[in-house]
Amino acid sequence: MTIEYATRYRRSSAIPAEPGKPYFIEKGEGDRAHLFGDLITIYAGGEQTENLFNFFTCEGPKGDLIPAHVHPDTYEVFYIANGAVRLFVEDTEGTQQEKLLTSGDFGFVPKNCPHAYRMERHHSQVIGVAAGPGGTFERFFETLGAPAEGRGLPREPVVPSPEKFGTVPQEYDVRFLPGHEWRTR
């Protein structure tokens, strides 16, 4: 059984609002959000880790490339639990790479490196961790997307308006790069 808490983000959450409190979450019972065609489930965030790291999963269908973005102060980890995900990364010198990651593969994106990804198989799942001096960005998913009550993928993709993309950089250390081109494809 998962205990539920009220937080500043939700009426009901499996994640305690205050730090320093041990907790357990059953599979799929974290704070969920839909963004693009994906379901993001947050299991630990800044409130629990003194803004040192977050832990989340992102699952989705085979789909479109997620928009290029950068985290100026946050490192991000991609561990593929199921399926296949193509990760696109550009280092700080402008060298681009792309790699198809399958179950068990790992990708690391340093802070200030533009990146994007695309689910290459249906029911792909990424385990993500983000950490760094910029804090954590897990609440970005439900702020830009939409909080989700159920465990399933969105019926229709949740695509924010262009204006909404500009509202997240200061608070969540996520800056989108409109018009960024990947030369590796």
Summarize the structure.
This is Quercetin 2,3-dioxygenase. The protein has 185 residues and is mainly beta.
Descriptors:
9% helix, Quercetin 2,3-dioxygenase, three-stranded antiparallel beta sheet, mainly beta, seven-stranded antiparallel beta sheet, Cupin_2, 4 helices
Q: So what's the overall shape? A: globular
Mean pLDDT: 89
- The percent of residues in helical segments reads under 10%
Low-confidence stretches: none
Kindly provide the radius of gyration, computed on alpha-carbon positions and rounded to a whole number of angstroms. 16 Å
Structural class determined from secondary elements:
mainly beta
Largest sheet: 7 strands, antiparallel
Query: How many beta strands in the DSSP annotation?
Result: 12
User: What topology, given as strand order, has the largest sheet?
Assistant: 8-5-10-3-2-1-11
Would you list the SSEs in sequence order as H and E?
EEHEEEEEEEEHEHHE
Beta-strand percent range: 35-45%
The N- to C-terminal Cα distance equals: 45 Å
Individual helix count: 4
Domain Cupin type-2: 61-119
Organism: Streptomyces daliensis
InterPro entries: Cupin_2, QDO-like, RmlC-like_jellyroll, RmlC_Cupin_sf
Protein name: Quercetin 2,3-dioxygenase
